[in-house]
Amino acid sequence: MNIEFFKSAELSINAKATIHATTGKLGFNRNAEKLLNLTDNKYVKIGRSSDYKDKSLFIIPLNNNDLHSFSILKSGAYYYANTARLFHHLGIDYKNIKVIYDITEINIDGQKMFKLEYREIERN
User: Fold this and answer.
1) Burial class (CB in 10 A: 0-12, 13-18, 19+), 108
2) CA angle, 117 then 100 then 36, to 5°
3) Which of 2, 9, 17, 62 satisfies CB 3.0 to 4.6 Å to 101 for a cystine?
4) Higher pLDDT, 5 or 72
């Protein structure tokens, strides 16, 4: 009998992105940085499902800029994307509600991407 053991380090990755209240930037924590392989001079495509019922977003990291991508920038030790216009367009009230996205890797039609699952917390 072959037994495959689970790797707890892979299961406990807490990759998150949070919308900054004052700027609308989407900031990535260190685990998200590793999962998405974020570096300077990277870009991401951000999308949603056509029915947009659960407020989840989908992200694909890119090495090259295209018409539909957001630049990944670095401030101090953290990476972020300038997304204020996107969240304004989506009607997300990030100034009054703390919006966090939990990030998981998925595969849709053979395309590796990441799902950003929406959750919110009241700001203090």
Assistant:
1) exposed
2) 65
3) 17
4) 72
